[in-house]
Specification:
The complex is a heterodimer. By secondary structure, chain A is α+β, with helices and mostly antiparallel strands. Chain A contains two helices and six strands; from the N terminus they run E-E-E-H-E-E-E-H. By secondary structure, chain B is of the alpha+beta class. Classes of the chains: A alpha+beta, B alpha+beta. The complex binds zinc ion. The site of zinc ion has 7 residues of chain A, from loops.
Chain lengths: 93, 195
Protein backbone atom coordinates (compact mmCIF):
# COMPACT_ATOMS: atom_id res chain seq x y z
CA UNK A 1 0.00 0.00 0.00
CA UNK A 2 1.41 3.39 -0.99
CA UNK A 3 0.53 6.52 0.97
CA UNK A 4 0.79 9.94 -0.71
CA UNK A 5 2.27 11.96 2.16
CA UNK A 6 1.65 15.67 1.54
CA UNK A 7 5.17 16.42 2.81
CA UNK A 8 7.29 13.53 1.55
CA UNK A 9 5.57 12.26 -1.56
CA UNK A 10 4.48 8.68 -2.12
CA UNK A 11 5.86 6.32 0.50
CA UNK A 12 5.28 2.69 1.49
CA UNK A 13 2.90 1.92 4.34
CA UNK A 14 5.75 0.47 6.45
CA UNK A 15 6.90 4.02 7.23
CA UNK A 16 3.58 4.86 8.91
CA UNK A 17 2.09 4.07 12.29
CA UNK A 18 -1.70 3.94 12.36
CA UNK A 19 -3.69 5.11 15.34
CA UNK A 20 -7.26 4.41 14.30
CA UNK A 21 -10.48 6.16 13.38
CA UNK A 22 -9.97 9.86 12.70
CA UNK A 23 -13.66 10.63 12.54
CA UNK A 24 -14.41 10.29 16.26
CA UNK A 25 -15.02 13.62 17.97
CA UNK A 26 -13.74 14.37 21.45
CA UNK A 27 -16.58 15.56 23.72
CA UNK A 28 -16.14 19.18 24.72
CA UNK A 29 -17.82 18.87 28.11
CA UNK A 30 -16.43 17.50 31.38
CA UNK A 31 -19.93 17.41 32.87
CA UNK A 32 -20.66 13.98 34.45
CA UNK A 33 -23.87 14.01 32.41
CA UNK A 34 -21.70 13.65 29.30
CA UNK A 35 -20.25 10.31 30.48
CA UNK A 36 -22.07 8.42 27.75
CA UNK A 37 -20.41 10.58 25.12
CA UNK A 38 -17.03 10.00 26.75
CA UNK A 39 -17.64 6.26 26.85
CA UNK A 40 -18.41 6.29 23.13
CA UNK A 41 -15.36 8.43 22.40
CA UNK A 42 -12.94 6.28 24.37
CA UNK A 43 -14.26 2.75 23.72
CA UNK A 44 -16.69 2.48 20.85
CA UNK A 45 -15.46 2.16 17.29
CA UNK A 46 -17.17 1.22 14.07
CA UNK A 47 -15.53 -1.34 11.86
CA UNK A 48 -16.69 -0.15 8.48
CA UNK A 49 -16.30 -1.91 5.20
CA UNK A 50 -15.36 0.64 2.59
CA UNK A 51 -14.07 4.16 2.98
CA UNK A 52 -12.33 4.81 6.29
CA UNK A 53 -10.40 7.86 7.55
CA UNK A 54 -7.53 6.89 9.79
CA UNK A 55 -4.85 8.75 11.72
CA UNK A 56 -1.34 7.94 10.54
CA UNK A 57 1.97 9.11 11.93
CA UNK A 58 4.70 9.32 9.33
CA UNK A 59 7.28 7.98 11.76
CA UNK A 60 9.70 6.93 9.02
CA UNK A 61 9.52 10.27 7.25
CA UNK A 62 8.41 13.78 8.14
CA UNK A 63 7.05 12.72 11.57
CA UNK A 64 3.82 14.61 10.86
CA UNK A 65 0.37 13.42 11.90
CA UNK A 66 -1.74 12.70 8.86
CA UNK A 67 -5.16 11.33 8.01
CA UNK A 68 -5.20 8.60 5.38
CA UNK A 69 -8.45 7.80 3.66
CA UNK A 70 -8.62 4.28 2.32
CA UNK A 71 -10.97 1.47 1.44
CA UNK A 72 -10.81 -1.18 4.17
CA UNK A 73 -11.89 -3.91 1.75
CA UNK A 74 -9.61 -3.15 -1.21
CA UNK A 75 -6.86 -1.00 0.39
CA UNK A 76 -7.39 1.54 -2.33
CA UNK A 77 -6.05 4.84 -0.97
CA UNK A 78 -8.25 7.83 -1.78
CA UNK A 79 -6.04 10.50 -0.30
CA UNK A 80 -3.91 11.77 2.55
CA UNK A 81 -4.00 15.15 4.27
CA UNK A 82 -2.33 16.54 7.35
CA UNK A 83 -4.27 16.00 10.57
CA UNK A 84 -4.29 19.78 10.98
CA UNK A 85 -5.99 20.31 7.62
CA UNK A 86 -8.39 17.46 8.37
CA UNK A 87 -9.41 19.07 11.66
CA UNK A 88 -9.74 22.50 10.05
CA UNK A 89 -12.02 20.99 7.42
CA UNK A 90 -14.26 19.75 10.21
CA UNK A 91 -13.16 16.13 10.04
CA UNK A 92 -13.56 15.61 6.30
CA UNK A 93 -10.92 14.54 3.85
CA UNK B 1 15.59 39.76 57.02
CA UNK B 2 19.26 40.30 56.39
CA UNK B 3 20.12 40.88 52.84
CA UNK B 4 21.90 37.94 51.35
CA UNK B 5 25.32 38.90 50.14
CA UNK B 6 25.48 39.81 46.51
CA UNK B 7 26.52 36.86 44.46
CA UNK B 8 30.01 37.24 43.11
CA UNK B 9 29.86 37.77 39.42
CA UNK B 10 30.68 34.50 37.69
CA UNK B 11 33.83 34.68 35.70
CA UNK B 12 33.29 34.07 32.01
CA UNK B 13 33.09 30.31 31.58
CA UNK B 14 36.37 29.06 30.23
CA UNK B 15 36.15 27.75 26.70
CA UNK B 16 36.12 23.98 26.93
CA UNK B 17 38.62 22.60 24.51
CA UNK B 18 37.94 18.88 24.62
CA UNK B 19 38.63 17.27 21.27
CA UNK B 20 35.42 15.98 19.72
CA UNK B 21 35.65 12.30 18.95
CA UNK B 22 33.56 10.94 16.11
CA UNK B 23 31.30 8.08 17.25
CA UNK B 24 32.59 6.24 14.19
CA UNK B 25 36.25 6.76 15.08
CA UNK B 26 36.72 3.08 15.96
CA UNK B 27 34.84 1.57 13.01
CA UNK B 28 35.39 3.90 10.05
CA UNK B 29 38.86 2.63 9.27
CA UNK B 30 40.44 4.21 6.23
CA UNK B 31 41.24 1.96 3.33
CA UNK B 32 39.71 -0.16 0.63
CA UNK B 33 37.25 -2.93 1.44
CA UNK B 34 34.90 -5.39 -0.23
CA UNK B 35 35.27 -6.40 -3.86
CA UNK B 36 38.83 -5.66 -4.88
CA UNK B 37 38.70 -5.68 -8.67
CA UNK B 38 38.58 -2.48 -10.66
CA UNK B 39 37.82 0.90 -9.25
CA UNK B 40 35.78 0.96 -6.03
CA UNK B 41 32.13 1.74 -6.76
CA UNK B 42 31.55 3.68 -3.58
CA UNK B 43 33.42 5.99 -1.27
CA UNK B 44 32.53 6.87 2.32
CA UNK B 45 33.66 9.80 4.37
CA UNK B 46 32.56 10.68 7.89
CA UNK B 47 32.04 14.42 7.99
CA UNK B 48 33.38 15.35 11.38
CA UNK B 49 33.31 17.59 13.32
CA UNK B 50 30.22 19.37 12.04
CA UNK B 51 27.94 22.08 13.29
CA UNK B 52 24.37 20.82 12.94
CA UNK B 53 21.41 22.93 13.97
CA UNK B 54 17.70 22.19 13.68
CA UNK B 55 15.32 25.03 12.95
CA UNK B 56 11.57 24.64 13.43
CA UNK B 57 9.41 27.56 12.37
CA UNK B 58 6.79 28.78 14.81
CA UNK B 59 3.19 28.63 13.69
CA UNK B 60 2.58 30.90 10.73
CA UNK B 61 6.27 31.79 10.37
CA UNK B 62 7.20 29.18 7.75
CA UNK B 63 7.87 31.58 4.90
CA UNK B 64 9.64 34.14 7.10
CA UNK B 65 11.97 31.43 8.37
CA UNK B 66 12.57 30.05 4.88
CA UNK B 67 13.49 33.54 3.68
CA UNK B 68 15.81 34.18 6.63
CA UNK B 69 17.59 30.87 6.07
CA UNK B 70 18.38 31.39 2.38
CA UNK B 71 22.02 32.45 2.98
CA UNK B 72 22.55 29.35 5.15
CA UNK B 73 21.62 26.78 2.47
CA UNK B 74 19.05 25.06 4.70
CA UNK B 75 18.20 21.41 4.20
CA UNK B 76 14.51 20.55 4.32
CA UNK B 77 13.76 18.32 7.31
CA UNK B 78 9.98 18.16 7.51
CA UNK B 79 7.17 20.71 7.24
CA UNK B 80 8.62 24.13 8.19
CA UNK B 81 11.66 22.36 9.63
CA UNK B 82 15.26 22.54 8.50
CA UNK B 83 18.78 21.43 9.22
CA UNK B 84 21.53 23.98 8.84
CA UNK B 85 24.99 22.49 8.77
CA UNK B 86 28.46 23.97 8.59
CA UNK B 87 32.05 22.88 8.70
CA UNK B 88 34.83 24.53 10.64
CA UNK B 89 32.72 26.61 13.01
CA UNK B 90 33.51 26.91 16.72
CA UNK B 91 31.54 25.06 19.36
CA UNK B 92 27.98 26.41 19.37
CA UNK B 93 28.80 29.30 17.00
CA UNK B 94 26.31 28.38 14.28
CA UNK B 95 23.62 27.74 16.89
CA UNK B 96 24.10 31.15 18.50
CA UNK B 97 24.10 32.87 15.13
CA UNK B 98 20.82 31.26 14.04
CA UNK B 99 19.23 31.62 17.46
CA UNK B 100 19.62 35.38 17.34
CA UNK B 101 18.81 35.69 13.61
CA UNK B 102 15.54 33.76 14.06
CA UNK B 103 14.58 35.11 17.46
CA UNK B 104 10.82 34.87 17.93
CA UNK B 105 10.03 33.14 14.62
CA UNK B 106 11.67 29.74 15.07
CA UNK B 107 12.86 27.26 17.65
CA UNK B 108 16.54 26.53 17.18
CA UNK B 109 18.50 23.69 18.72
CA UNK B 110 22.09 22.55 18.45
CA UNK B 111 22.37 18.92 17.33
CA UNK B 112 26.08 18.97 16.49
CA UNK B 113 26.88 16.25 19.01
CA UNK B 114 23.65 14.38 18.45
CA UNK B 115 23.97 13.47 14.80
CA UNK B 116 26.60 12.03 12.50
CA UNK B 117 26.86 12.82 8.80
CA UNK B 118 28.26 10.18 6.46
CA UNK B 119 28.95 11.16 2.86
CA UNK B 120 28.52 8.42 0.31
CA UNK B 121 29.70 9.03 -3.24
CA UNK B 122 30.63 7.15 -6.37
CA UNK B 123 28.97 5.54 -9.35
CA UNK B 124 27.33 2.89 -7.17
CA UNK B 125 26.18 5.23 -4.39
CA UNK B 126 22.60 5.20 -5.60
CA UNK B 127 22.62 1.43 -5.96
CA UNK B 128 23.72 1.10 -2.32
CA UNK B 129 21.06 3.51 -1.06
CA UNK B 130 18.37 1.77 -3.10
CA UNK B 131 18.90 -1.31 -0.95
CA UNK B 132 17.64 0.62 2.05
CA UNK B 133 15.31 3.42 1.05
CA UNK B 134 12.20 3.57 -1.11
CA UNK B 135 12.95 7.21 -1.97
CA UNK B 136 13.48 7.72 -5.70
CA UNK B 137 16.98 9.14 -6.03
CA UNK B 138 17.00 9.54 -9.80
CA UNK B 139 18.10 13.11 -10.62
CA UNK B 140 14.71 13.79 -12.23
CA UNK B 141 13.04 13.15 -8.86
CA UNK B 142 15.78 14.15 -6.45
CA UNK B 143 17.52 17.30 -7.62
CA UNK B 144 20.77 18.68 -6.27
CA UNK B 145 20.35 19.96 -2.71
CA UNK B 146 17.06 18.15 -2.17
CA UNK B 147 16.55 16.37 1.13
CA UNK B 148 14.32 13.52 2.22
CA UNK B 149 13.53 11.90 5.53
CA UNK B 150 13.54 8.16 5.29
CA UNK B 151 14.56 4.95 7.01
CA UNK B 152 17.28 2.49 6.15
CA UNK B 153 17.75 -0.71 8.11
CA UNK B 154 15.22 0.64 10.66
CA UNK B 155 17.34 3.72 11.26
CA UNK B 156 15.89 7.17 10.60
CA UNK B 157 18.04 8.89 8.00
CA UNK B 158 18.05 12.45 6.77
CA UNK B 159 19.35 12.24 3.23
CA UNK B 160 20.52 15.13 1.05
CA UNK B 161 21.80 15.06 -2.51
CA UNK B 162 25.10 16.95 -2.55
CA UNK B 163 26.38 15.98 -6.00
CA UNK B 164 25.61 13.98 -9.10
CA UNK B 165 26.59 10.78 -7.33
CA UNK B 166 27.01 12.03 -3.78
CA UNK B 167 24.68 12.08 -0.80
CA UNK B 168 24.95 13.12 2.83
CA UNK B 169 23.32 10.75 5.30
CA UNK B 170 22.61 12.20 8.71
CA UNK B 171 21.72 9.77 11.50
CA UNK B 172 21.39 9.92 15.27
CA UNK B 173 24.71 9.43 16.98
CA UNK B 174 23.48 6.38 18.88
CA UNK B 175 22.57 4.60 15.66
CA UNK B 176 25.65 5.66 13.72
CA UNK B 177 27.74 2.56 14.35
CA UNK B 178 24.96 0.12 13.53
CA UNK B 179 24.08 2.13 10.43
CA UNK B 180 27.74 2.20 9.38
CA UNK B 181 27.98 -1.57 9.64
CA UNK B 182 24.84 -1.99 7.58
CA UNK B 183 25.71 0.44 4.81
CA UNK B 184 29.30 -0.70 4.38
CA UNK B 185 28.07 -4.27 4.11
CA UNK B 186 25.71 -3.19 1.31
CA UNK B 187 28.67 -1.61 -0.49
CA UNK B 188 30.92 -4.67 -0.30
CA UNK B 189 29.80 -6.10 -3.63
CA UNK B 190 30.93 -2.87 -5.39
CA UNK B 191 34.12 -2.41 -3.39
CA UNK B 192 34.41 0.72 -1.27
CA UNK B 193 36.92 3.21 0.00
CA UNK B 194 36.76 4.83 3.40
CA UNK B 195 38.47 8.23 3.48
ZN1 LIG C 1 5.79 12.46 5.41
Amino acid sequence: MLIPCPHCGTRPVEEFTFLGDASVKRPTSNDPASMDQWFDYVYLRDNPKGRFDEYAHHAGGCRAWLVVSRNTATHEVYGCVTARDYAKAGGKS
Amino acid sequence: MPKSPARPKAAAAPEIMLPRVSPLADVAIQGRFGADRGAPGVEFRVRHPMSIVTVIARQGQGSAVAAALVPHAPQWAGPDQYFVIAEGRGEGALYRELKSALDGIASVSDQSHGRVIIRISGVKARAVLAKGTPVDLHPDECAMGKSALTQMAHVGVHLTRVGENAFDLSVFRGFAESFWEWITEQAEEFGYMVR
